[in-house]
Specification:
By secondary structure, the protein is mostly beta strands. 4% of the residues lie in helices and 44% in strands.
C-alpha cells in the first residue's frame, strides 16, 4: 500500500454534549506506512474496551470518521503488514466479534501510535511501545483462550545429513511474499562446495555434490536467482542452483577475487545493485565491498578484548544500509557511501558482545551476549536497548549466535543449547534449555526454526534440527 499523502486526513466528528451540529475536527493521518490500519477512539476515563470506538481501513485516501462525546480524548492507530481480510476484518466500523472470528495477528501490530486530541488544539501522533490491554480486548475479545500470548514451548526434531563435512553457511532461498521472515526453503553450504536444500521438519535434499573449491560463506541472490559463494582462497563466484544436478559437482562460475587475510565468514548482496554488489566480513573483522570485480576495503570492526578472530557476527542489508558486527562492542553501518560505528553498548556491564542481527517490521535488531537486544527503529538513528525490564536481567542471553522470528516472537539461539525468546506481550522469557548445541545458522523455514550444527571436528556426522512450536488448543492460528 502506498504511503499516505499529507493531505489525506483522519476526521473526528465532535458531538460534544450530544450536539450533532458540532464542527468536524481534523488530525493528520499517520505518516507511517502499513497495509491496513485500525483506529480507536477512547471516550472513557477507565480505559475499558466498552468505551472504545473502532474502525478499520486500507485506503488512506478516504477520511475516517468517529463520533466523539468529549472535548478531549485519546486516539489510537495500529498499523499491520497484513490486509484486513487476513486479520478477520472488513473496512468500516468494527462490530463486536464472534468467537474465533479474528486473527491473533491483530495483537501484534507493526506500528503503534497514539494521539491526545483536544478540540481546536494541534494534534500530533507519537509512537507507543505498548498497546492498551483494553484495545486488545476489544479487537480480539477471546484472546485469552484463542491466542497464546505467553512464552512458547518448543519441540525439537533432528536427523543426520549423511555427511561429516563441516557446514559453512545457511542461505534463505525462497521467501514468503506476505512475510519475508519465513522462507519456503534455504540452501545449506558445506566446506567441500556441496549444497543441500532444507525445507520443513525432516525435509531436505541434495542440490549438487562437492567440487574442487573450499567454501567459507554464501548468500542467495533473489533478484538473479543465483547463489554467491566466497572461497577459502578469496575467490568469489556464483552457482546456478536451478541448473544443478544432485549427482554432479556444483557448477561454480568464478567472477572475482578478494585479497583476504582471513577467511570470509559472512556475505550479503545489495538489492537492486547492477553490477552485483557484495558486502563481505572475514574472521578478523575486516569489511570489504565488492562491486563487479572491484574490491574496496571498508575498514575493520573492533573485536572483543584480546581476540584476533571471531566466527560470530553478521552482515545485514536493510533499508539501503549494510550492518556489520563481529562479537565485539561495535556495530558498523555503511550507508550513503559512508561508514559509521556505534560503540559503547555495554554501558556499565562488562563484556557485552554483538553476535547477530535481524530486520523485522521496519526495525533493525542486534543481539548482545549478556546485554540482550538493542533496536534501531525504522533503520534510523542510534541503537537503543529494546527492553530494560526485570525479565532482561533474569533471562540473560549468553552468546546469541543467531536471530529469527517465530510466530511474531524474536527468538535467539544461545550457547549450550539454550533458546532465548522476546515478545511485546512477554518481554524476555526464561531461557529454554535442552536443545541443540552451539551453532551460527538458524532460519524460520515453513513456520519451524531450522538449526544446523557448528562442529568443526572432522569425522562427526552433521545434523539438521527443527524447532516447532507446541500450540495450545486454539481456534485461530
Amino acid at each position: 500500500m502506498r504511503r499516505p499523502d499529507p493531505e489525506f486526513l483522519l476526521l473526528l466528528l465532535a458531538l460534544a454534549g450530544g450536539c450533532a451540529e458540532s464542527p468536524i475536527q481534523v488530525v493528520p493521518f499517520p505518516s507511517d506506512s502499513a497495509a491496513s490500519w485500525v483506529f480507536a477512539v477512547d471516550q472513557g476515563a477507565n480505559r475499558s474496551s466498552a468505551n472504545l470506538q473502532l474502525i478499520a481501513t486500507e485506503d488512506s485516501s478516504l477520511p475516517v470518521r468517529f463520533s466523539a462525546l468529549e472535548r478531549s480524548l485519546r486516539v489510537y492507530a495500529l498499523g499491520y503488514l497484513q490486509p484486513l481480510s487476513k486479520l478477520g476484518l472488513v473496512p468500516g466500523a468494527i462490530p463486536p466479534a464472534e468467537r474465533c472470528a479474528r486473527s491473533c495477528d491483530l495483537l501484534r501490530p507493526t506500528r503503534k501510535l497514539q494521539l491526545e486530541f483536544t478540540r481546536d488544539q494541534p494534534s500530533v501522533w507519537v509512537a507507543s511501545e505498548v498497546v492498551e490491554p483494553a484495545l486488545l480486548d476489544a479487537l480480539v475479545p477471546d484472546r485469552a483462550t484463542s491466542c497464546d500470548e505467553g512464552c512458547m514451548s518448543l519441540t525439537e526434531t533432528s536427523t543426520g545429513l549423511g555427511t561429516s563435512v563441516p557446514i559453512e553457511f545457511l542461505a534463505t532461498e525462497v521467501l514468503r511474499a506476505d512475510d519475508p521472515t519465513i522462507a519456503e526453503s534455504a540452501l545449506l553450504g558445506f566446506r567441500d562446495g556441496s549444497i543441500d536444500r532444507i525445507r520443513g521438519p525432516l525435509d531436505f535434499e541434495p542440490v549438487c555434490a562437492a567440487n574442487a573449491s573450499t567454501t567459507t560463506a554464501g548468500v542467495f541472490d533473489l533478484e538473479r536467482q543465483r547463489l554467491w559463494v566466497i572461497l577459502g582462497d578469496g575467490g568469489v563466484g556464483w552457482v546456478d542452483v536451478g541448473a544443478a544436478v544432485p549427482e554432479r559437482p556444483c557448477p561454480l562460475v568464478r567472477t572475482a577475487s578478494v585479497p583476504l587475510t582471513a577467511a570470509a565468514t559472512h556475505v550479503a548482496v545489495t538489492p537492486g545493485s547492477d553490477p552485483p554488489e557484495l558486502m563481505i566480513l572475514d574472521l578478523a573483522g575486516n569489511m570489504h565491498r565488492l562491486v563487479g570485480a572491484e574490491v574496496t576495503s571498508l575498514g575493520s570492526l573492533t573485536l572483543r578484548s584480546g581476540a584476533t578472530m571471531s566466527r560470530a557476527g553478521f552482515v545485514l542489508q536493510f533499508g539501503g544500509a549494510t550492518y556489520f558486527g563481529a562479537a565485539g562492542d561495535d556495530v558498523a553501518i555503511f550507508e550513503n557511501g559512508q561508514l559509521s560505528h556505534q560503540r559503547g553498548f555495554a554501558l556499565t556491564i562488562q563484556g557485552a558482545e554483538v553476535h547477530s542481527a535481524l530486520a523485522h517490521n521496519g526495525d533493525v535488531y542486534v543481539a548482545f551476549g549478556i546485554y540482550n537486544l538493542h533496536v534501531r527503529r525504522g533503520g534510523t538513528g542510534r541503537f537503543v536497548p529494546l527492553d530494560e525490564g526485570r525479565s532482561r536481567t533474569t533471562a540473560i542471553w549468553e552468546d546469541p549466535e543467531a536471530l529469527a522470528v517465530l510466530d511474531g516472537r524474536l527468538v535467539s539461539r544461545l550457547a549450550k543449547g539454550f533458546i532465548g525468546e522476546w515478545s511485546q506481550e512477554t518481554s524476555y522469557c526464561q531461557t529454554k534449555e535442552g536443545f541443540s548445541p552451539n551453532g551460527f545458522y538458524m532460519a524460520n523455514i515453513q513456520g519451524s526454526l531450522y538449526l544446523s550444527d557448528y562442529n568443526r571436528e572432522v569425522g562427526i556426522e552433521r545434523r539438521a534440527r527443527w524447532l516447532t512450536r507446541d500450540r495450545p488448543p486454539a481456534c485461530v492460528p
